[in-house]
Amino acid sequence: MTSKLDDRPWVERDLPPVKPRVQIGTYSVRRWVAILAVIAVVVGGPLGISYLRAVTVAGGGTFGAKSVDWVRSMGGSRLVAGVENTWYGHHAPPKGGAPSGALDAQGVDPAAVDPQAPTIPLSPLGKPAAVQSIAQPPLPAEGQWEPLGRTVAGGAAMYAAFIRPDAVHTSLTAGLVWMDPRVIDLRLVAGSQQPGGTGWADQAPLPVGERSRLLATFNAGFRLSDGRGGYFEAGRTGRELVDGAASLVISKDGSATVAKWGRDATMSASVYAVRQNLSLILDGGLVTPEVSQNSTRAWGATIRNEVLVWRSGIGVTRNGALIYACGPGLSVASLAEIFRHAGAVRAMEMDINSTWVTFISYKPVAGAPPDTNNGSKLLPGMSGKADRYLGPSTRDFFAVFARPGSSVTDVSPSAVVPSPSLNPLLTRTPPPSPTPWPSTSPALVYPTYYPTPSPSVSPLYPSP
Protein backbone atom coordinates (compact mmCIF):
# COMPACT_ATOMS: atom_id res chain seq x y z
CA MET A 1 0.00 0.00 0.00
CA THR A 2 1.36 3.34 -1.05
CA SER A 3 1.38 6.14 1.49
CA LYS A 4 -0.21 9.48 0.49
CA LEU A 5 2.92 11.04 1.90
CA ASP A 6 5.11 9.21 -0.55
CA ASP A 7 6.88 11.89 -2.57
CA ARG A 8 8.22 9.61 -5.24
CA PRO A 9 7.15 11.17 -8.58
CA TRP A 10 6.64 7.84 -10.31
CA VAL A 11 4.05 6.71 -7.77
CA GLU A 12 0.37 7.78 -8.36
CA ARG A 13 -1.22 9.60 -5.51
CA ASP A 14 -4.90 9.28 -4.47
CA LEU A 15 -5.72 13.03 -4.46
CA PRO A 16 -9.19 14.73 -4.60
CA PRO A 17 -10.33 15.82 -8.09
CA VAL A 18 -9.51 19.37 -9.14
CA LYS A 19 -12.64 21.55 -9.57
CA PRO A 20 -13.00 23.04 -13.07
CA ARG A 21 -11.77 26.60 -13.31
CA VAL A 22 -11.78 29.34 -15.94
CA GLN A 23 -8.76 31.52 -16.65
CA ILE A 24 -9.68 35.23 -17.04
CA GLY A 25 -6.52 37.17 -17.77
CA THR A 26 -4.22 36.56 -14.83
CA TYR A 27 -7.10 35.42 -12.61
CA SER A 28 -8.44 31.92 -12.20
CA VAL A 29 -12.07 31.53 -11.04
CA ARG A 30 -14.49 28.67 -10.59
CA ARG A 31 -16.49 27.83 -13.70
CA TRP A 32 -19.88 28.31 -12.04
CA VAL A 33 -18.82 31.74 -10.82
CA ALA A 34 -17.80 32.69 -14.36
CA ILE A 35 -21.12 31.41 -15.73
CA LEU A 36 -23.12 33.43 -13.20
CA ALA A 37 -21.05 36.50 -13.96
CA VAL A 38 -21.75 36.15 -17.68
CA ILE A 39 -25.48 35.72 -17.00
CA ALA A 40 -25.48 38.78 -14.72
CA VAL A 41 -23.82 40.89 -17.39
CA VAL A 42 -26.03 39.62 -20.23
CA VAL A 43 -29.30 39.87 -18.31
CA GLY A 44 -28.59 42.47 -15.66
CA GLY A 45 -26.87 44.87 -18.00
CA PRO A 46 -29.92 45.59 -20.19
CA LEU A 47 -32.20 45.53 -17.14
CA GLY A 48 -29.98 47.98 -15.34
CA ILE A 49 -29.90 50.28 -18.34
CA SER A 50 -33.69 49.97 -18.69
CA TYR A 51 -34.18 50.83 -15.01
CA LEU A 52 -31.84 53.82 -15.14
CA ARG A 53 -33.70 55.16 -18.16
CA ALA A 54 -37.03 54.66 -16.39
CA VAL A 55 -36.08 56.54 -13.22
CA THR A 56 -34.38 59.40 -15.03
CA VAL A 57 -37.07 60.09 -17.64
CA ALA A 58 -38.65 63.52 -17.42
CA GLY A 59 -42.24 63.87 -16.22
CA GLY A 60 -42.66 60.49 -14.56
CA GLY A 61 -43.40 61.53 -11.00
CA THR A 62 -41.26 60.72 -7.98
CA PHE A 63 -38.36 58.26 -7.93
CA GLY A 64 -40.59 55.72 -6.20
CA ALA A 65 -43.39 56.15 -8.73
CA LYS A 66 -40.96 55.73 -11.62
CA SER A 67 -39.54 52.59 -10.02
CA VAL A 68 -43.00 51.08 -9.55
CA ASP A 69 -43.94 51.93 -13.13
CA TRP A 70 -40.77 50.21 -14.33
CA VAL A 71 -41.62 47.05 -12.39
CA ARG A 72 -45.10 47.10 -13.92
CA SER A 73 -43.65 47.56 -17.40
CA MET A 74 -41.47 44.49 -16.85
CA GLY A 75 -44.52 42.31 -16.16
CA GLY A 76 -44.65 42.89 -12.41
CA SER A 77 -48.14 44.41 -12.17
CA ARG A 78 -49.46 41.60 -9.97
CA LEU A 79 -46.41 41.80 -7.72
CA VAL A 80 -46.88 45.55 -7.27
CA ALA A 81 -50.61 45.07 -6.68
CA GLY A 82 -49.94 42.49 -3.97
CA VAL A 83 -47.50 44.75 -2.15
CA GLU A 84 -49.82 47.77 -2.41
CA ASN A 85 -52.86 45.82 -1.23
CA THR A 86 -50.92 44.63 1.82
CA TRP A 87 -49.52 48.07 2.63
CA TYR A 88 -52.80 49.94 2.27
CA GLY A 89 -54.60 47.22 4.19
CA HIS A 90 -52.38 48.02 7.19
CA HIS A 91 -52.59 51.80 6.72
CA ALA A 92 -56.32 52.46 6.55
CA PRO A 93 -57.54 56.04 7.07
CA PRO A 94 -58.86 56.98 10.54
CA LYS A 95 -62.50 56.60 11.40
CA GLY A 96 -64.59 59.48 12.69
CA GLY A 97 -63.36 63.01 13.24
CA ALA A 98 -63.96 66.13 11.18
CA PRO A 99 -62.20 67.74 8.20
CA SER A 100 -59.30 69.98 9.16
CA GLY A 101 -60.51 72.84 6.96
CA ALA A 102 -63.70 74.46 5.76
CA LEU A 103 -65.62 72.75 2.96
CA ASP A 104 -66.72 75.94 1.25
CA ALA A 105 -65.67 79.45 0.28
CA GLN A 106 -65.66 80.51 3.94
CA GLY A 107 -62.16 79.07 4.05
CA VAL A 108 -60.93 81.27 1.20
CA ASP A 109 -57.82 83.32 1.70
CA PRO A 110 -59.22 86.86 1.18
CA ALA A 111 -55.87 88.12 -0.13
CA ALA A 112 -56.09 85.69 -3.07
CA VAL A 113 -59.51 86.83 -4.29
CA ASP A 114 -59.45 89.74 -6.72
CA PRO A 115 -61.23 92.60 -4.93
CA GLN A 116 -61.97 94.28 -8.27
CA ALA A 117 -63.55 91.22 -9.86
CA PRO A 118 -67.30 91.54 -10.48
CA THR A 119 -69.66 88.87 -9.28
CA ILE A 120 -69.22 85.96 -11.65
CA PRO A 121 -72.29 85.12 -13.80
CA LEU A 122 -73.58 81.59 -14.03
CA SER A 123 -72.44 79.13 -16.68
CA PRO A 124 -74.75 78.49 -19.67
CA LEU A 125 -76.18 75.44 -17.89
CA GLY A 126 -76.66 77.42 -14.69
CA LYS A 127 -75.20 76.67 -11.29
CA PRO A 128 -75.46 72.94 -10.53
CA ALA A 129 -77.63 71.72 -7.69
CA ALA A 130 -75.81 71.11 -4.42
CA VAL A 131 -74.23 67.69 -3.91
CA GLN A 132 -76.28 65.62 -1.49
CA SER A 133 -74.35 64.97 1.71
CA ILE A 134 -73.34 61.36 2.31
CA ALA A 135 -72.29 61.84 5.93
CA GLN A 136 -75.06 63.20 8.16
CA PRO A 137 -75.70 65.78 9.37
CA PRO A 138 -74.15 67.92 6.61
CA LEU A 139 -71.52 70.45 7.56
CA PRO A 140 -72.10 74.14 6.76
CA ALA A 141 -72.09 74.60 2.96
CA GLU A 142 -70.93 71.02 2.40
CA GLY A 143 -71.56 70.11 -1.24
CA GLN A 144 -72.18 73.70 -2.33
CA TRP A 145 -70.69 74.60 -5.70
CA GLU A 146 -68.46 77.66 -6.09
CA PRO A 147 -66.98 79.04 -9.35
CA LEU A 148 -63.49 77.74 -10.00
CA GLY A 149 -60.61 79.26 -11.94
CA ARG A 150 -60.82 81.40 -15.07
CA THR A 151 -64.12 82.53 -16.54
CA VAL A 152 -65.01 82.03 -20.20
CA ALA A 153 -66.92 84.69 -22.13
CA GLY A 154 -67.72 86.34 -18.80
CA GLY A 155 -69.28 83.32 -17.09
CA ALA A 156 -68.19 80.37 -14.99
CA ALA A 157 -66.91 77.34 -16.90
CA MET A 158 -66.16 75.21 -13.83
CA TYR A 159 -67.47 74.89 -10.28
CA ALA A 160 -65.89 73.11 -7.29
CA ALA A 161 -67.50 71.45 -4.28
CA PHE A 162 -66.32 69.39 -1.32
CA ILE A 163 -67.98 66.61 0.66
CA ARG A 164 -67.07 63.90 3.14
CA PRO A 165 -66.88 60.61 1.18
CA ASP A 166 -68.76 58.35 3.59
CA ALA A 167 -70.35 58.22 7.02
CA VAL A 168 -67.39 56.44 8.63
CA HIS A 169 -64.25 58.31 7.58
CA THR A 170 -65.65 61.73 8.35
CA SER A 171 -62.30 63.50 8.64
CA LEU A 172 -61.61 62.98 4.93
CA THR A 173 -62.57 65.38 2.16
CA ALA A 174 -63.40 64.53 -1.43
CA GLY A 175 -63.26 67.18 -4.12
CA LEU A 176 -65.50 67.56 -7.16
CA VAL A 177 -65.28 69.76 -10.25
CA TRP A 178 -68.28 70.42 -12.50
CA MET A 179 -67.45 71.43 -16.10
CA ASP A 180 -69.81 72.99 -18.63
CA PRO A 181 -69.51 71.15 -21.98
CA ARG A 182 -70.85 74.13 -23.92
CA VAL A 183 -67.84 76.30 -23.18
CA ILE A 184 -64.94 73.88 -22.61
CA ASP A 185 -62.73 72.20 -25.19
CA LEU A 186 -61.52 68.92 -23.67
CA ARG A 187 -58.36 67.31 -25.02
CA LEU A 188 -56.71 63.94 -24.40
CA VAL A 189 -52.95 64.57 -24.24
CA ALA A 190 -50.52 61.73 -24.95
CA GLY A 191 -47.59 60.98 -22.64
CA SER A 192 -44.17 59.69 -23.64
CA GLN A 193 -44.91 56.19 -22.23
CA GLN A 194 -48.72 56.10 -22.12
CA PRO A 195 -49.63 55.55 -24.88
CA GLY A 196 -46.03 56.17 -26.02
CA GLY A 197 -44.62 57.16 -29.38
CA THR A 198 -44.48 60.54 -31.01
CA GLY A 199 -46.53 62.50 -33.50
CA TRP A 200 -49.81 62.55 -31.57
CA ALA A 201 -52.12 65.46 -32.35
CA ASP A 202 -52.11 66.40 -28.65
CA GLN A 203 -48.94 65.47 -26.82
CA ALA A 204 -47.06 66.64 -23.72
CA PRO A 205 -45.76 69.20 -23.16
CA LEU A 206 -48.72 71.41 -23.98
CA PRO A 207 -47.85 73.95 -26.69
CA VAL A 208 -47.14 77.37 -25.21
CA GLY A 209 -49.34 79.02 -27.84
CA GLU A 210 -52.44 77.17 -26.57
CA ARG A 211 -51.99 77.89 -22.88
CA SER A 212 -53.70 81.26 -23.09
CA ARG A 213 -57.03 79.42 -23.05
CA LEU A 214 -56.03 76.62 -20.64
CA LEU A 215 -58.44 76.24 -17.71
CA ALA A 216 -57.33 73.04 -16.00
CA THR A 217 -55.50 69.72 -16.31
CA PHE A 218 -56.31 66.38 -14.70
CA ASN A 219 -55.16 62.75 -14.70
CA ALA A 220 -56.31 60.08 -17.12
CA GLY A 221 -56.65 56.35 -16.40
CA PHE A 222 -54.47 53.36 -15.54
CA ARG A 223 -51.53 52.22 -17.59
CA LEU A 224 -53.16 50.87 -20.74
CA SER A 225 -51.89 47.35 -20.09
CA ASP A 226 -53.54 47.36 -16.65
CA GLY A 227 -56.84 49.12 -17.37
CA ARG A 228 -58.51 46.74 -19.84
CA GLY A 229 -59.18 49.52 -22.32
CA GLY A 230 -57.99 51.32 -25.42
CA TYR A 231 -56.70 54.68 -26.57
CA PHE A 232 -57.71 56.60 -29.69
CA GLU A 233 -57.04 60.15 -30.79
CA ALA A 234 -57.39 62.03 -34.08
CA GLY A 235 -57.61 58.93 -36.25
CA ARG A 236 -54.73 57.12 -34.55
CA THR A 237 -55.04 54.09 -32.26
CA GLY A 238 -52.62 53.68 -29.37
CA ARG A 239 -54.39 50.56 -28.13
CA GLU A 240 -57.45 48.86 -29.61
CA LEU A 241 -60.77 50.00 -28.16
CA VAL A 242 -62.71 47.39 -26.19
CA ASP A 243 -66.47 46.88 -26.46
CA GLY A 244 -68.18 47.28 -23.10
CA ALA A 245 -65.35 49.29 -21.55
CA ALA A 246 -66.01 52.53 -19.69
CA SER A 247 -65.00 55.33 -22.04
CA LEU A 248 -64.49 59.07 -21.93
CA VAL A 249 -65.47 60.03 -25.47
CA ILE A 250 -64.46 63.42 -26.84
CA SER A 251 -66.10 64.89 -29.92
CA LYS A 252 -64.37 67.10 -32.45
CA ASP A 253 -66.09 70.17 -31.01
CA GLY A 254 -64.44 69.54 -27.63
CA SER A 255 -67.55 68.30 -25.86
CA ALA A 256 -67.37 64.94 -24.11
CA THR A 257 -69.37 62.24 -22.40
CA VAL A 258 -68.86 59.08 -20.35
CA ALA A 259 -70.18 56.01 -22.12
CA LYS A 260 -70.16 52.24 -22.35
CA TRP A 261 -68.37 51.68 -25.64
CA GLY A 262 -70.46 49.79 -28.18
CA ARG A 263 -73.73 50.62 -26.44
CA ASP A 264 -73.75 54.36 -25.80
CA ALA A 265 -70.98 55.35 -28.20
CA THR A 266 -69.39 53.90 -31.31
CA MET A 267 -66.75 55.08 -33.73
CA SER A 268 -67.88 57.75 -36.19
CA ALA A 269 -66.52 60.77 -37.99
CA SER A 270 -67.41 63.03 -35.06
CA VAL A 271 -65.29 61.13 -32.52
CA TYR A 272 -61.99 62.88 -31.84
CA ALA A 273 -60.61 60.90 -28.89
CA VAL A 274 -61.50 57.97 -26.64
CA ARG A 275 -59.81 56.98 -23.38
CA GLN A 276 -61.04 53.73 -21.85
CA ASN A 277 -60.51 52.42 -18.33
CA LEU A 278 -62.14 49.40 -16.70
CA SER A 279 -65.96 49.26 -16.51
CA LEU A 280 -68.63 51.78 -15.57
CA ILE A 281 -69.08 52.22 -11.83
CA LEU A 282 -72.34 54.15 -12.26
CA ASP A 283 -74.86 53.43 -14.99
CA GLY A 284 -78.36 54.86 -15.33
CA GLY A 285 -77.78 56.73 -12.07
CA LEU A 286 -77.24 53.45 -10.19
CA VAL A 287 -74.07 51.85 -8.81
CA THR A 288 -73.14 48.92 -11.08
CA PRO A 289 -72.82 45.30 -9.87
CA GLU A 290 -69.15 45.26 -10.96
CA VAL A 291 -68.32 47.62 -8.08
CA SER A 292 -68.71 44.74 -5.59
CA GLN A 293 -66.63 42.29 -7.65
CA ASN A 294 -63.10 41.91 -6.29
CA SER A 295 -61.27 40.62 -9.36
CA THR A 296 -58.49 41.71 -11.68
CA ARG A 297 -60.86 41.13 -14.58
CA ALA A 298 -63.13 43.85 -13.25
CA TRP A 299 -60.53 46.27 -11.86
CA GLY A 300 -57.29 45.44 -13.64
CA ALA A 301 -53.97 44.26 -12.21
CA THR A 302 -53.93 46.81 -9.43
CA ILE A 303 -55.35 47.60 -6.00
CA ARG A 304 -58.52 45.73 -5.01
CA ASN A 305 -61.87 47.46 -5.25
CA GLU A 306 -62.48 47.68 -1.49
CA VAL A 307 -59.05 49.05 -0.53
CA LEU A 308 -59.24 52.64 0.73
CA VAL A 309 -56.81 54.72 -1.31
CA TRP A 310 -56.62 57.91 -3.36
CA ARG A 311 -58.99 57.42 -6.30
CA SER A 312 -60.38 59.56 -9.10
CA GLY A 313 -63.08 59.30 -11.69
CA ILE A 314 -65.23 61.21 -14.14
CA GLY A 315 -68.96 61.18 -14.76
CA VAL A 316 -71.65 62.85 -16.83
CA THR A 317 -74.98 64.32 -15.72
CA ARG A 318 -78.34 64.28 -17.49
CA ASN A 319 -77.76 67.69 -19.03
CA GLY A 320 -74.29 66.80 -20.32
CA ALA A 321 -72.07 68.38 -17.68
CA LEU A 322 -68.87 66.55 -16.77
CA ILE A 323 -67.98 65.92 -13.13
CA TYR A 324 -64.50 65.01 -11.95
CA ALA A 325 -64.29 63.54 -8.44
CA CYS A 326 -61.37 62.44 -6.32
CA GLY A 327 -60.12 62.07 -2.79
CA PRO A 328 -58.14 60.01 -0.28
CA GLY A 329 -59.46 56.94 1.49
CA LEU A 330 -61.89 55.92 -1.25
CA SER A 331 -63.05 52.48 -2.34
CA VAL A 332 -64.58 51.95 -5.76
CA ALA A 333 -67.99 51.83 -4.06
CA SER A 334 -67.52 55.12 -2.20
CA LEU A 335 -66.29 56.80 -5.39
CA ALA A 336 -69.42 55.59 -7.18
CA GLU A 337 -71.60 56.92 -4.34
CA ILE A 338 -69.98 60.34 -4.64
CA PHE A 339 -70.96 60.48 -8.30
CA ARG A 340 -74.48 59.26 -7.54
CA HIS A 341 -74.97 61.96 -4.91
CA ALA A 342 -73.56 64.57 -7.32
CA GLY A 343 -76.24 63.76 -9.90
CA ALA A 344 -74.21 61.80 -12.46
CA VAL A 345 -75.97 59.20 -14.60
CA ARG A 346 -72.79 57.41 -15.73
CA ALA A 347 -69.31 57.42 -14.23
CA MET A 348 -66.00 55.62 -14.54
CA GLU A 349 -62.95 55.25 -12.35
CA MET A 350 -59.75 56.86 -13.61
CA ASP A 351 -56.28 56.62 -12.08
CA ILE A 352 -55.60 55.86 -8.41
CA ASN A 353 -52.83 56.40 -5.81
CA SER A 354 -51.72 59.76 -4.50
CA THR A 355 -48.93 59.96 -7.10
CA TRP A 356 -51.30 60.07 -10.06
CA VAL A 357 -54.57 61.61 -8.83
CA THR A 358 -54.29 65.28 -9.75
CA PHE A 359 -56.64 68.09 -10.76
CA ILE A 360 -55.05 71.50 -11.27
CA SER A 361 -56.93 74.67 -12.19
CA TYR A 362 -55.26 77.88 -13.33
CA LYS A 363 -56.06 81.50 -12.65
CA PRO A 364 -53.16 83.66 -13.81
CA VAL A 365 -52.84 87.39 -13.53
CA ALA A 366 -53.93 89.08 -16.75
CA GLY A 367 -51.25 88.72 -19.39
CA ALA A 368 -49.39 85.92 -17.61
CA PRO A 369 -49.42 82.27 -18.76
CA PRO A 370 -50.60 79.39 -16.55
CA ASP A 371 -47.72 78.13 -14.41
CA THR A 372 -46.86 76.78 -10.98
CA ASN A 373 -47.42 80.19 -9.39
CA ASN A 374 -51.07 80.44 -10.47
CA GLY A 375 -51.97 76.76 -10.61
CA SER A 376 -53.97 75.26 -7.77
CA LYS A 377 -54.52 71.65 -6.74
CA LEU A 378 -58.08 70.63 -6.05
CA LEU A 379 -57.02 69.02 -2.75
CA PRO A 380 -53.92 70.00 -0.76
CA GLY A 381 -52.85 66.35 -0.35
CA MET A 382 -52.27 65.89 -4.08
CA SER A 383 -48.62 65.23 -4.90
CA GLY A 384 -46.44 67.02 -7.41
CA LYS A 385 -46.23 70.64 -8.38
CA ALA A 386 -49.01 72.72 -9.88
CA ASP A 387 -47.23 72.78 -13.24
CA ARG A 388 -46.77 69.00 -13.54
CA TYR A 389 -48.80 68.79 -16.76
CA LEU A 390 -47.27 71.86 -18.36
CA GLY A 391 -43.97 70.07 -18.99
CA PRO A 392 -43.01 66.55 -20.14
CA SER A 393 -45.22 63.72 -18.88
CA THR A 394 -44.83 59.96 -19.14
CA ARG A 395 -48.57 59.46 -18.53
CA ASP A 396 -51.41 60.75 -20.66
CA PHE A 397 -53.77 63.31 -19.13
CA PHE A 398 -56.65 65.63 -19.97
CA ALA A 399 -56.42 69.36 -20.64
CA VAL A 400 -59.48 71.58 -20.27
CA PHE A 401 -59.41 74.57 -22.63
CA ALA A 402 -61.88 77.33 -23.35
CA ARG A 403 -63.50 76.93 -26.75
CA PRO A 404 -61.45 78.58 -29.53
CA GLY A 405 -62.50 82.19 -30.01
CA SER A 406 -63.96 82.53 -26.51
CA SER A 407 -62.65 85.28 -24.25
CA VAL A 408 -60.92 84.13 -21.08
CA THR A 409 -60.92 86.39 -18.02
CA ASP A 410 -57.92 86.34 -15.69
CA VAL A 411 -57.34 87.87 -12.28
CA SER A 412 -56.49 91.57 -12.31
CA PRO A 413 -52.96 92.56 -11.24
CA SER A 414 -54.37 93.79 -7.93
CA ALA A 415 -54.81 90.22 -6.72
CA VAL A 416 -52.16 88.50 -4.66
CA VAL A 417 -50.60 85.44 -6.29
CA PRO A 418 -52.64 82.39 -5.19
CA SER A 419 -51.12 79.79 -2.93
CA PRO A 420 -50.87 76.18 -4.19
CA SER A 421 -54.16 74.89 -2.79
CA LEU A 422 -57.69 75.08 -4.10
CA ASN A 423 -59.43 77.32 -1.59
CA PRO A 424 -57.68 80.56 -2.61
CA LEU A 425 -59.07 80.07 -6.11
CA LEU A 426 -62.69 79.87 -5.07
CA THR A 427 -64.61 83.03 -5.88
CA ARG A 428 -67.77 84.74 -4.74
CA THR A 429 -71.07 82.92 -5.00
CA PRO A 430 -72.87 84.04 -8.20
CA PRO A 431 -76.30 85.67 -8.15
CA PRO A 432 -79.33 83.37 -8.30
CA SER A 433 -80.49 84.47 -11.75
CA PRO A 434 -78.54 83.41 -14.87
CA THR A 435 -77.27 85.94 -17.38
CA PRO A 436 -77.78 85.68 -21.15
CA TRP A 437 -75.10 83.66 -22.87
CA PRO A 438 -74.07 83.89 -26.51
CA SER A 439 -74.05 80.55 -28.28
CA THR A 440 -70.54 79.45 -29.22
CA SER A 441 -71.86 76.95 -31.74
CA PRO A 442 -75.28 77.47 -33.35
CA ALA A 443 -75.37 73.88 -34.51
CA LEU A 444 -74.78 72.51 -31.01
CA VAL A 445 -77.98 70.94 -29.71
CA TYR A 446 -78.23 69.24 -26.33
CA PRO A 447 -80.96 66.61 -25.98
CA THR A 448 -83.02 67.00 -22.84
CA TYR A 449 -82.36 63.44 -21.69
CA TYR A 450 -79.17 62.07 -23.18
CA PRO A 451 -76.20 64.24 -22.21
CA THR A 452 -74.04 63.96 -25.30
CA PRO A 453 -74.09 66.53 -28.10
CA SER A 454 -72.26 64.15 -30.43
CA PRO A 455 -73.88 62.22 -33.31
CA SER A 456 -71.50 59.37 -32.49
CA VAL A 457 -73.55 58.58 -29.38
CA SER A 458 -76.96 57.03 -29.48
CA PRO A 459 -79.71 59.32 -28.10
CA LEU A 460 -81.40 56.28 -26.65
CA TYR A 461 -80.58 55.57 -23.05
CA PRO A 462 -82.46 53.41 -20.54
CA SER A 463 -84.29 55.29 -17.83
CA PRO A 464 -82.64 54.82 -14.43
Q: What's the quick description here?
A:
This protein is α+β, with helices and mostly antiparallel strands and about 475 residues long. The chain has helices at about 30-55, 65-90, 295-300, 330-340, and strands at about 20-25, 25-30, 145, 150, 155, 160-165, 175-180, 185-190, 215-220, 230-235, 235-240, 245-250, 255-260, 270-275, 280-285, 285, 310-315, 320-330, 345-350, 360, 375, 395-400, 410. It has 2 domains: about 20-55, no CATH class; about 105-425, no CATH class.
Q: Would you identify the regions where 5 or more consecutive residues have pLDDT less than 50?
A: 105-118, 412-464
| Protein structure class | alpha+beta
Distance between the termini: 100 Å
Number of self-contained structural domains: 2
Q: Quick check: average pLDDT?
A: 78
Helical stretch count? 4
Q: Rounded to an integer, what's the Rg over CA atoms? A: 28 Å
List the helices and strands and how they pair.
Elements: E1 21-24, E2 27-30, H1 31-56, H2 63-89, E3 146-147, E4 151-152, E5 155-156, E6 158-163, E7 174-179, E8 184-189, E9 214-219, E10 231-233, E11 236-239, E12 246-251, E13 256-260, E14 271-276, E15 280-283, E16 286-287, H3 296-299, E17 309-317, E18 322-330, H4 332-341, E19 344-352, E20 359-362, E21 375-377, E22 397-402, E23 408-409
Antiparallel strand pairs: 1-2, 3-6, 4-5, 4-23, 6-7, 7-18, 8-22, 9-20, 9-22, 10-11, 10-14, 12-13, 12-14, 15-16, 15-19, 17-18, 17-19, 20-21
